Every structure is written in C-alpha cells, then in structure tokens.
Amino acid sequence: MKINISEVKANLSKFVNMAYHGERIVILKNNIPLVDIVPHQIEGKRTLGLLAGQFTVPDDFLDEDDQINSMFYGDDQ
Questions:
Q1: Strands 32-37 and 25-29
Q2: pTM of the model
Q3: What is the Cα–Cα distance from 38 to 44, expressed in whole angstroms?
C-alpha cells in the first residue's frame, strides 16, 4: 500500500496496526517514496557472559584513593 505522509499523520495508529498484521506500507511525499512501515523483527536474546575470562578485576578495585577523596571532599578528612 502506498500512502501520502499527510494521511499517515492523521491515521498513524491505523497504518501501524495494518503493518503489524503483515501489510507493507510505503509512505510517500510528493509521490516520492520515503520510508516503509514494516513489523518489528526481534533480533534475538542477548548473550550474557560474552566477555567471561577476557579480563580480571583487580583485588583493590573497591579501595578508596586518598588523592581522589581529597579532590572531592577537600583535605579536611
């Protein structure tokens, strides 16, 4: 289905519903095709642990640094 952008503006939910149910909709501006409305395709599940074993966290990762603390809180601590 080819439809002008002005009609899509007025009836967007109708055309989204049509696309969801399999209809391919081409949006035109001055009779020039701009975009297609097509149903969303799920890309798949994300893989957890993709970088497992690729790096190690140092033992002192959560330790506070006196120099950084003095920059944030001043030397009064």
A1: antiparallel
A2: 0.52
A3: 18
Domain spans of the chain, in order of start = 2-37
Q: Take residue 66 and report the two structure tokens written for it.
A: 């006196």
Please list the pLDDT of the chain residue by residue as tens digits (77 residues): 899 999 999 999 999 999 999 899 999 999 999 999 988 888 888 888 888 889 888 898 899 888 999 999 987 65
d(C-alpha 20, C-alpha 7), whole Å: 18
Residue 60 CA, distance from chain mean position: 34
- Segments of the chain assigned E as strands: 2-4, 25-29, 32-37
